[in-house]
Write a structure and sequence with these properties.
The complex is a heterodimer of chains A (about 425) and B (about 150). In chain A, about 40% of the residues lie in helices and about 15% in strands. Chain A is an alpha/beta fold and about 425 residues long. Chain A has two domains: about 85-320, 3-Layer(aba) Sandwich (Aspartate Aminotransferase, domain 2), CATH 3.40.640; about 325-430, Alpha-Beta Complex (Aspartate Aminotransferase, domain 1), CATH 3.90.1150.10. In chain A, helix 4 packs parallel to helix 5 (about 155-160), helix 12 (about 325-340) runs parallel beside helix 15 (about 415-430) and helix 13 crosses helix 15. Chain A is globular, with a radius of gyration of 22 Å. Chain B has a single domain, classed as Alpha-Beta Complex (Sufe protein. Chain: A), CATH 3.90.1010. Chain B has a four-stranded mixed beta sheet, covered by helices on one side. The chains are: A alpha/beta (about 425), B alpha+beta (about 150).
Chain lengths: ~425, ~150
């Protein structure tokens, strides 16, 4: 690998795989996919690992781990600063990753792609720039009952600061958004609608294109939380017409600490910068600073270059397997899981949304999810037990915690069997 | 059931979690405090009646996992007749049990509390076992604010 001269190797040499080159479902070899994830071969508690906590974070394929290592071994330098070769290569690597993100989001304009730490930081960035600029006393921010805390709290802070009101689109008992209520709540003072593409707690897929259309009909811009949506459904910013889209690298097979805020160029250009520092300026004197162009205006300081490289490799990997193929596989696994769980006595699946992706929440009799989670762990089964950072949603459903199994490209029916066997063990202990 | 799971969910623990003792409000309480575990959203309120510097009665309310309920149930029984200083000392010994594991003399020092000896194998569950204790000690300090395990 290092035998080639440094300046001959093209950092962005690998072609960007297109999403529409998905192989047919029949050709989906889940074992071959699993073999690419080193951690999946590791036993846990002396048992084969059934990793069903993908909504919290996904595991990483060898391609991503290698890309990060290769970056540090061969390309590492600071970006946009040095005239030396390595700096050039680091810069090229980061910008190639930005192009990959843009392609993943269905846009030709990488300048609309801002690297952040993750979805949480993306939402905070919009709240602190767009929000502070546009929201005043008496204005309203609209969120939904399905949101993760990270798409609630930044807006709450903004509303408190500005004397604005946080309004909430309710859900049905099934866990679907009440679209009639959405229409009523979209008012003349609504400055933004912040809505998730997929609920992390219930797996509800929101009818995002229709929601955006209804909001735009009232002149309300929309931020879409794609933390759960991006890995399972992807998102075409052009087709869906969103104004902001946020997602995290680590939930889509990339590293932690890197994520994306995509924004419509016209909006991003009007927004004030967020953090001040290096890289986000054109020139600085003690009297005046001229800010850099997009996307650097929002990327103060040395960025997570290796993270961007890793995210680029992850999106390449998703493109090679094919997002459609992954989605079809996950739908089949989700159906298998729902059917198998329904067979477990006293097990109650939470919510019955029209469409579900990635995750399913449930309760086992009156066993507390933490007790069940502990016992599942001893059987090698990793699930999430708790409130999933969606306390308002759980409160609406009259719950304080659930068990959640969530799936990825490498999930297998065998893991679901292991889950079900472990659930029977829970029932034995708490019989 | 594996041995470690059997150590955690001992019969006594399961029994206390299913049929908690001293559960409900306490008439004539002199102190109370709420314990909150933000990790799982569990809440336990401990009510205490102090009489002559000793705990005359302790009861608890709230919802939680089997470990936190059983811990509250056993705790409200064993602290009866003890002074706040004795309770602090007992908690220290209990905390050592659930974080480091059983040691010689626990049965004498801890009595019924020794059933939580399996918790130390489960670092994520230590907070469940300590939740009621934090609430009790907060109550005895007379502080009104809820206490958090974080």
């Amino acid at each position: 690998m290092t035998s080639r001269a440094l300046d001959e190797r093209e950092t962005a040499a690998r072609p960007i795989a297109r999403r529409d080159t998905a192989p047919a479902r029949a050709g989906y070899d889940v074992e071959a996919i699993r073999a690419q994830f080193p951690i999946l071969a590791r036993p846990v508690r002396g048992k084969p690992l059934a990793y069903l906590d993908n909504a919290a974070t996904s595991q990483k394929p060898r391609a991503v781990i290698d890309a990060i290592r290769r970056y540090y071994e061969e390309d590492n330098a600071n970006v946009h600063r040095g005239v030396h070769l390595l700096s050039e290569r680091a810069t090229r690597a980061q910008e190639a990753a930005r192009v990959k993100v843009a392609r993943f989001l269905g846009t030709d304009d990488p300048h609309e792609v801002i690297f952040v730490r993750g979805t949480t930081e993306a939402v905070n960035l919009v709240a602190q720039t767009f929000g502070r600029q546009r929201v005043g006393p008496g204005d309203e921010i609209l969120v939904t009952c399905l949101e993760h805390h990270s798409n609630i709290v930044p807006w709450q802070l903004l509303c408190q600061e500005k004397g604005a009101a946080l309004k909430v689109v309710p859900i049905s008992d099934a866990g679907d958004l009440e679209l009639d209520a959405l229409d009523r709540l979209l008012g003349p003072r609504t400055r933004l609608l912040a809505v998730t593409q997929v609920s992390n707690a219930l797996g509800t897929v929101t009818p995002i294109a229709e929601i955006i259309e209804r909001a735009h009909a009232r002149g309300v811009p929309v931020l879409v939380d794609g933390a759960q949506g991006a890995p399972h459904l992807g998102f075409d910013v052009g087709r869906a017409g969103a104004d902001f889209y946020a997602f995290s690298g680590h939930k889509i097979y990339g590293p932690t600490g890197i994520g994306v805020l995509w924004g419509r160029r016209a909006l991003l250009e009007e927004m004030p910068p967020w953090q001040g520092g290096g890289d986000m300026i054109l020139s600085v004197s003690f009297e005046k600073t001229t800010f850099n162009a997009l996307p650097y205006k929002f990327e103060a300081g040395t960025p997570h270059i290796a993270g961007a490289v890793g995210l680029g490799a992850a999106l390449d990997w998703v493109g090679e397997v094919g997002l459609e193929a992954i989605a079809a596989h996950e739908r089949a696994i989700l159906d298998t899981a729902a059917a198998a769980l329904a067979e477990v006595p006293e097990l109650r699946i939470i919510g019955a949304p029209r469409e579900r992706a990635g995750a399913i929440s449930f309760l086992l009799g009156d066993v507390h999810p933490h007790d069940a989670g502990t016992i599942l762990d001893r059987h090698g089964v990793a699930v999430r037990a708790g409130h999933h950072c969606a306390q308002p949603l759980l409160a609406r459903l009259g719950l304080s915690a659930t068990l959640r199994a969530s799936f990825a490209a490498y999930s297998t029916p065998r893991e679901i069997e292991q889950l079900v066997r472990a659930l029977h063990a829970v029932r034995e202990i708490f019989a | 059931m594996s041995d470690e799971l059997a150590d955690l969910y001992q019969e006594v623990v399961l029994d206390h979690s299913k049929r908690p003792r001293n559960f409900g409000p306490l008439e004539g309480e002199t102190h109370h405090a709420e314990g909150l575990n933000p990790l799982c959203g569990d809440r336990i309120t401990v009510h205490v009646r102090l009489d002559g510097g000793r705990v005359a009665a302790a009861r608890f309310e709230g919802s939680g996992c089997a470990i936190s309920k059983a811990s509250a149930s056993v705790m409200t029984g064993v602290v009866k007749g003890k002074t706040p200083a004795e309770i602090d000392a007992l908690f220290e010994r209990f905390h050592a049990l659930v974080t480091e594991g059983p040691r010689l003399g626990d049965d004498d020092a801890l009595g019924k509390l020794a059933v939580f000896g399996g918790v130390h194998d489960y670092p994520t569950r230590v907070k469940c076992a300590s939740l009621a204790w934090h609430a009790l000690r907060q109550a005895l300090k007379g502080a009104a604010a809820p206490v958090s395990t974080e």
